[in-house]
Each structure stands twice: as structure tokens, then as C-alpha cells.
Design a protein that fits this description.
A hairpin with a 2-residue loop joins strand 16 (473-474) and strand 17. The protein has 31 helices and 24 strands. 53% of the residues are buried. The chain has 750 residues and is an alpha+beta fold. Strands 4-1-5-21-8 form a 5-stranded mixed sheet. A 4-stranded mixed sheet has the order 12-15-9-18. 38% of the residues lie in helices and 12% in strands. The chain is globular, with a radius of gyration of 26 Å.
Length: 750
Amino acid sequence: MKKFNKILAVVLCVIMVMALLAGCGPKLPNNDTSNNDTSNNDTSKDTTNNDTGSDTTEDTSAPAAETVYEKYTKGNVTLRMAFGYNSTDAAISFNSNIIETYGTNGVLTLADGKEYRQGELKPTWQEMQNRLGITFVDVYQGNNSSKEWAYWENQLDQLEVIYGGLATLNNAGLAGSLVNIADYLDMMPNFKAYLDANPIVYLSITADPDTGAIYFSPYFDGANDIERMPLMRTDWVVKLLDGEGAFAADKSGTTAAPVYQPYITESYEIDVVKADGSGVETIKNDMEAAGGNIVAQMNAKGAMSGVDAVNMLRDYIDKAYNGYYGTTRSNLFVGQNAAWDADELVALLRCVVANAQTLNGTDKVFGIFSREDNNMQRKVDMYRLAAVLFGVRGLESRSDFLYADKDGKLHDARQEPATYEAMDRMHAMAVEGLISESFLKNEAEKTQTMLENDLGFMHYDYNQTQTIYNEQENDNGPIMGEGEKYMAVMIPVAKWDDGDPSTPDYFRFTESWRSVKDSGIAITKAGVADNEEELYAALAMIDYAFSKEGQILQSYGPNAFIKTNADGSYVTFNFNGEQWPEIADATREELWSKGKGNYTNYARYFLGSTITFLKSQSFEYQCTTAVGREGAGYLSTAIGLGTIKHPELEITDNKWYTSIPSALPIDETQSTIINGYTDLTGNSGKFGTSKDSVNEFVDIIINGYSGDVITGVNSGADVAAKVASKEFGGSGYLDIVQEAWDRAISSYNG
């Protein structure tokens, strides 16, 4: 079965690329009701059948089961809703800021040709209102999930639907404050089908494995897809590495005295996707043939000119890969058939920072940076990059820093010495000047300034929002000049240990895999009280969002924002093996004029979509620049052909490959104990990930063990032991989550 799925994935990947080039596909009917009278908008047949144009025949041999759609009177139910994304700019209705900033005289006209005013629902929610026959009232206060819950916690009778953090909602549900959605799953055909097909999603939202209680609907920013990836100035790699003969430059700098030491010291074979994407072939990194590890060779020579460094790396690539890359040596890093590892990256970074004159005409260029070098929420991507470079699990877990070993025993990356060995290596890179000064000094540089000033070479982040600069302009014109290219590149080869002795030591693996996010939507018992119609209307809203047409609406907005055929059906393309609509030309234009090319901001601020529920990446993919699609295409092909491994949203035989559920079934008492480990948990602890937090991993990257986040330590082993200590709480935390994980798996397996 797994072999079949892998073959199927390859076929679907090829189909996706071909369909994108063709720009069209089969027709999908649209269910837009923007011109309909909502008073008699009975959607029960459409939503329960979930017909998206497939050749299916309804079984009429038995009466259809009753669903939530038949349990409330259309046009006679109002739901007060408190959810959005961190600001009232990203709520289900328009606030004054959006109207005043983008509208004229209090009126905002969007790509659908309609006029919108302050306080009115955004297009997606007007259409949800029409289709479901429910009146939605926005009472969202503009907070993040924890603060929004805190605002409403003692007045839950004032609203029917609220969003919050997963642990918060589970505890509130167990305390009797929220509706148990599991009691109604048999009446929610779309939601139930989704949970049946995705076991890890089911486990992520189950508060009590013994009873199967579910107190919220999950939120996905895409699902079962790669999330973050390395991005590089690929034109710089081409400039340094490609061509006949030796590299030459009129002027170059000098590499720093070497600090970083080799990570991989033996030759290895690795599967790569063929350059044309047509299949897989095996190549060898033959270090012995090249005279040894490239970092070891550079370190033996010491500080050298940037020109000498480039020629040393060129020679290494030619010999280690036996001429495989020819004169396009850049493909080792930026091609479809890329096979780079951490040591080769360090060698390349040394070449980059020592050749600023060649690359930007100045005396300074930075190697690795983060999206915002003075914002901890973005700086933490540096340790996430370390994870893929050096084969460390848990740093991009869906649940804290947890991962399972082969037999299902949970590990916490914060308590693993190997994690700190990776941070030590990043610190060595920092000391050598391979990480940006602004990152080290907490200064206000960001992706845009790094690219528009030709200052930065690479970082680790989301593809769409970061490759947008290839086509975006500032006041002085295009941010990226002619021939300049910032693109996602292949996941590196690293030494991983999945616990299976038959698995090769070296392969590509990413833990950055989309699943349930850390917040969800719940129905308050006090809000719906004894009003069953409100209860069933809220349940219908959730169920509809997990139907195909509901997913389209919650991702794209109403029909007017989607490209349609003459008969009104959607123009579609093949995305990840399914037909999804193309966005309308007017939507694409507005995405750039109002959203500056940022799909997520455009959808949240103007359409009211992607705020919650199940977001498809198909809209976002269409909004990605040509360069962004190129890099993402390489990665997609590699994933489809199996040369990049990742966690699975199912319970795998080897539990190392099982994605940890975003929330584990921890009761309120256990939660109180965990919250008592104040150094370990939350953004006020020692491993925070919010803007103004402190983070021990980042501190080690910058300061080694002389920092002030966790003090009194001299090594990674010291830190791991301190985190595991009774005082810090690590071992107690692991005991609690292990018990919860075991209960969840046992209950699911029956």
C-alpha cells in the first residue's frame, strides 16, 4: 500500500506541474449564492452530498441519515463569533483601519465590484451567511488566541463561537464550558470524513481518549505539505561556481580564521532527482577522491582569499562528484538534482562573505539572516535551519519540541545533547562571520532590506511570502534587479537516525510539515444554552468548512474572486492531485495592488478567508512568483519521488515518522503542573518564540555558553541536564506527555 501511495504521489506530482503549465482543467460547479435570497437558502442537499463534479451516484436504497443542516431554520439563527488573527484587521468583518486605508470616503470596493463599509462582513462571511442561512455577528476583540480567550472566559454566555489555544479549549471543554462536538460527528458528514482520513488530526483534537471528546474544530494553514525551506540568492551561487576554468576577480576579501569543524567525515551515496525531474538516480559524495572533507581542506589552509576559496570549492565539487555537475556546479546547491550538505554549505558561505566585491560591489555581504533580525519570532528560524542541517529532531515539532523514537518513546529536543551540538556548530558559524551581524546584534534588518541592498545570501522561511521580493517593488523600483534571483532550494543531506538499522545513515528529512495549528474554534455551552437551533447552526458552519466547496470558500472567497467558464463553473488546475479553482484576473491584480503580493494578508484583510478552518494552499500557489514556483516545484518533485522524507499524519509502524499531535490529551491537573514549570513552558520561559521572548537556542548561537538565558552551564550536556532536572521540570514534563501519548495511541488502536 505504501509503495502504491509513493508511485501515486509521483504521478500526481507530474500531473500537477503539467496542469499548472496548461492553466486549466475540468469544470467544477460553483455554489455561490451572492445573488440569492438567503431566507430560503436550504443547503442540506449540497453540503451533505458534497458534490464537486465527480462521477458518483447517490445510493437511494435507504433514507439519508439526518445531518446538522436539517436541524435549524435557515434565516432564523444568529451566531456571535469571536475569532480572527491577532488583529481586527484580520477579522470576519471590516474595521475602520482597512476601510480608511484602502477605501475612499468610507467605502471600499473590491475585485468583486461590491462596496464594503466598516462593520460589514467580509465577502467570505457574507457568502457563508448566504449559503448556510445563518447570521454572523463579529464580536472579536482583535487579540491573539490566549488573550481573546481571557477576555471572554467569564462571559461565555455573550457569544456562541470562540477561538483559543488548543490546551485552553481542551481544559475548558473538560470543565464543562464547551460543546462536545464528538457527540454530533455522525451528523457532520464532511468533518467526520476528514477526521477518519487523518488519524493524527483526530488525535490532535481529542481531549479525552477514553471518551473521544472533541471540544474544537482545528485550524490549518495548509495541511500535509512542506512548510519552511532554505532560500538562497541562487544567482550568486551561479556567479561563483559555474563556468570553465578558474574563478577570477579583480578584488576579493579574505576568509576568516576557521572555527567551524567538519560535520560529515566519510563518503556517502545519496538519491537525487534527475536534473529533468523524470526520476531518481544515486550519486556519490566521494570525499576521499576529492582529498577529504571540504571544510577540513579549507581549515588546513587557514585564512585565504575569496578567489582561492571559490576555486578550492569548485575543485572539490568536480572531484567529489566525479564531474556529475559539469561546469554548472551551482546545481549541487540550487538544482533539481541538488545534493548539498552542511559542510558544503559552510564552504559556500565562506566563499560568499569573502567575495562581496563580486556579488554586490561593496566590502560587505552577510551569509545567513532571518526574516527579521530583531524579532525573536523570526530569529528562531535559525535553530530550525540548524535542525535540517545537522539532523536534529523536535525543533519543528507540531507539539512543543517533542518527537517519538522508533518504539514510540517521546523525546524533548531541549533535553537532548545532540540539539546543543547543532547549536554549537551554528555558533562556530557565527564566530566566523557567516551569520549576519544584525542577527547577532539584534538590529532591524529584514528580508526586504537584505535583498534590495544585496546584503544577504540565504535564510530559512516560507516560500510564498519570501520569494515575493523577486517581483515586488519599492519606491525606487524593483527590489530585485535584472538577473537576480531569490529561490527555495533543496533540503540538505544530513545524518539522521530513525532507529532502523536498514535505513541509510544519510538522507534528506524535513520536520517542517503542515498539520493542525495551535488554535481552534469552539462552541460555548453558555452561548447556545438551550437553543438547539444555534447549536446545530454552529455545528453546520464547522462541517461545511470541511466540505470541498467550504474549503474553496474559506480559501478563495466567493465566486466573484474565482475565474469561471461561460457556464459559471470554475476554471480549475490540478494541485496535489485534486482539481482546484484558478483565481480571477481581477483578484490577482488586487492581490498586488492591495496585498502587495502577500496572499495570506490579502485573504485575511480583504476576503475574510484563511482566518480559520481548513485552508488550501492552492490559492497561495497561484500567487507565488515564477521564481517561487520554480523552487517549490523542485521540492514538490523530490517529495513525490521520495527523496525527501517527512513526518506522516498517520500512525506509522516506525513511530519516528509519526507526526506528534498538535495537542495531547492532558487534563487540567496535568496542565497546571506543566504550567508550573515556568522556565520550560510558554513565551515567558527560556525557550520562548514570541517577538520579545528569550530563547536559549538562539542565545547559544549568538553567545555560546556565556549568555544570560540559562546560566551556570559550560556545555550542551550541561544545558540538557539542567532542563531535565526536577528544578527546571523537563523530566516531569516528559512523564506527563508520555502518559498522554500512550493513552492516545492505545485508545486509537482500540
